[in-house]
Amino acid sequence: MVKKKETITIYDVAREAGVSMATVSRVVNGNPNVKPVTRKKVLDVIRQLGYRPNAVARGLASKKTTTVGVVIPDISNTFYAELTRGIEDIATMYHYNIILSNSDMKKEKEIQLVEALLEKQVDGLLFLGGEITDSHREIFAASTVPVVLAATRDERRELPYVTIDQIQAAKEATTILVHEGHEQIAFIGGPLTDSVNGYPRYVGYKEAIEESETSFDEALVRLGDYRYRSGYEAMKSLLESQPGVSAVFAVSDEMAVGAIHAVQDLGKRVPEDVSVIGFENIPLSSQVRPLLSTVSVPMYDIGAVAMRLLTKYMNDEQVESGQVYLQYSMELRNSTKLKEWEDER
Amino acid sequence: MVKKKETITIYDVAREAGVSMATVSRVVNGNPNVKPVTRKKVLDVIRQLGYRPNAVARGLASKKTTTVGVVIPDISNTFYAELTRGIEDIATMYHYNIILSNSDMKKEKEIQLVEALLEKQVDGLLFLGGEITDSHREIFAASTVPVVLAATRDERRELPYVTIDQIQAAKEATTILVHEGHEQIAFIGGPLTDSVNGYPRYVGYKEAIEESETSFDEALVRLGDYRYRSGYEAMKSLLESQPGVSAVFAVSDEMAVGAIHAVQDLGKRVPEDVSVIGFENIPLSSQVRPLLSTVSVPMYDIGAVAMRLLTKYMNDEQVESGQVYLQYSMELRNSTKLKEWEDER
DNA sequence: CTGTTAGCGCGTTCAA
DNA sequence: TTGAACGCGCTAACAG
């Protein structure tokens, strides 16, 4: 792979076109203060020489890179991939590029990635999914560029974020099961130490149960890691030790599907014997049988809105509210019996 | 969000430490020619001042940005998301950042994205999935930085790539069905105009059929768009018009799962009445019942190897071969009857 | 409407 | 082992 080395600069274009580099810069940047004739001449030379502006030099001089950094837990996770697509689409729309990095939700790595992104002089930062600790607030506060959180929130409300009301969503999902009249509604959750997704959804479940006729029972709770396998195991354990369970709320679609399969493997049917409701509404939920009833989280929109919000901050535009909660909905399909659901919100 | 403006530079550090900026530059870049004492002093000042090197300025001066551009069809597609994770992991390992952009497989957009990435002075380019046309070869040839293709190939072998042998893989998958002794083996493919995935897999299917006892029958072929829905529709159409079909090879897992559901909805069973084999081995394939038999494509590895290859080119290291074909395998689960399969390759 | 002139923050000779 | 000086390619006043 032999490559040519001649870098052709704005200066070459200027000389060739018989104008100053300032003029070339103007036409390249669409500055209207250029006589049409000269503009055309410059444009011709640019094409002829195959000139390509150097964004790095431009970035150094203008102190803007038109790129934003994105810290995401794991791009191979459907949920975040969908979110990222929303981010990228809006970024493209506003002529920004995205530098993507996976954090695996590790605090250390998150901080380090943010640091690296800042070194690269990104114009803004999108931070997805992870829990916001004081270390995060510290580095974000020290940042000279705006930061927006997505699919997570800052309890202290110091940082702008866009997400959904997790507690409420989990509560509604559970309530659907309550309305179906079950005596024992189990819960398959994520780690309670996960303050972003795990804990809030647990709280929502608990609140719904406590407001119902039945009462909260620790024995009906199982914790997994959001993955299929853990949902399967949890359900199996539940069915074996709690024969009275006739409904379950799993806080991720993968776990919910795993739960459905566990039910089926034990010779029971969904939703006839056990109702199952999930959370997220990733494609998987409508690619299994029975179709999974789930909480529909607007993943794409969360990404898109977060990115849009970031552009506003980057352009110093006025922002009504930095804390935005997007609408979620109950997508009732075939793993639950209740087909209608009044939106109480 | 009020932000501070003071940018602290290498020059500030120099002054504060009582040395020249050249020395600071040396310690920042790990140049050994610095007396330990001065190094420590500089390091202290750096920490104290909270100095953060400006990668853009560095990029301009050194003509290296330690970032690579990645053009991908669609990050929300599981297959590519997995691939991207492989890329990102290796990139991180070699201290590169990734600028990600979605092309949706649109030729125009691909070219435009490459152009933008080149403007950003990426040190290398990873191009995923799309077909390589002359326009592509042209812009890649004109590029001063190395380009590696992943999950696609350049028939003209002008560009390096890493992928799998699609024809052979499709052929083997079909052959498994042949060995099960079916009279009519259907095919649910992608667009034949898709020279990257659609056409090769079709060729593989056809070759396998033609080498078998049975003969190729156009009526057993249906084309979809790799998505679940199209697989479902294709299978339904197949079952309705070709009652003799007892096996089908779908060129994507989503279509294969859709096919399975169509079979089931028509009151038949998989694999007892109809054997189904897919392609890709995305997580979905092991999250449905019956578990899907499929061609396992090393998605993560394709990304990882491609990125590794790119680093070699970027460092002017010796590369044995620019055309690498990774190993795939037959993942036989429960949607086919044959449980063993000799690897003939 | 166009050109001149400073930097932007840092890597890198070349001397010392 | 260290410093001075130049240049990377471009934007942004400021003149004219």
Automatic annotation (TrEMBL), chains A, B:
Keywords: Activator, DNA-binding, Repressor, Transcription, Transcription regulation. It holds the Pfam family LacI. One of its GO terms (molecular function) is DNA-binding transcription factor activity. The keyword Transcription applies. Coiled coil: none annotated. The keyword Hydrolase does not apply. InterPro entries: CcpA, HTH_LacI, LacI/GalR-like_sensor, Lambda_DNA-bd_dom_sf, Peripla_BP_I. Residues 8-62 form the HTH lacI-type domain. PANTHER family: ARABINOSE METABOLISM TRANSCRIPTIONAL REPRESSOR (PTHR30146:SF150), LACI-RELATED TRANSCRIPTIONAL REPRESSOR (PTHR30146). Global transcriptional regulator of carbon catabolite repression (CCR) and carbon catabolite activation (CCA), which ensures optimal energy usage under diverse conditions. This is Catabolite control protein A.
